[in-house]
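Forum: Protein Structure Q&A
Topic: Joint prediction for protein chains with partners

I've read a bunch of threads here and the consensus seems to be that you should model interacting components together rather than docking separate models afterwards. I'd like to see that in practice. Below is the full input, 172 residues plus whatever partners are listed. Could one of the regulars post the assembled result?
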Amino acid sequence: MDSASLELFGLLAGAVTSMGFIPQLVRGYKTKKLDDISYFMPIVLAFGMTLWFIYGLLQEALAVMVANTFGAACCLVLITMKKMYS
Amino acid sequence: MDSASLELFGLLAGAVTSMGFIPQLVRGYKTKKLDDISYFMPIVLAFGMTLWFIYGLLQEALAVMVANTFGAACCLVLITMKKMYS
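Posted by a regular:
Agreed with the consensus. Here's the joint model:
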């Protein structure tokens, strides 16, 4: 697989992983309940995704950078929503 | 940053991201309640992480492979727990 195809595959993987948080945010927004979510999950994930972003930066892997920016942002939104609804 | 240090940094990032699911699993195990969690979140994340695993395989990036194997496994455990407790 050539470099461009690999990067494209990474972007696909990143898009799917990032989208994973969307249904949780939608559900939380609809039910206004996020009690069963542990604060530590989005906090630790946001921290880890920031590290992945730096890894992507050092590797010059755009897919890793984009995916983790979006993912970390979703985690921060989730933390904010849980705080608002509790 | 040399290749070995970069891989080590990736492993650190992977370790932190993977650990993010642990507090959620612990909380779910303690409270026996995972109602506020959307099934789609762990399902989509497990699928995305499988794609990341393949990306890591093609890139020969061990950190990406290890982190996403563990993360996907945690997502599958979360799905199983939510099913059991509902």
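Chain A is about 85% helix and 0% strand.
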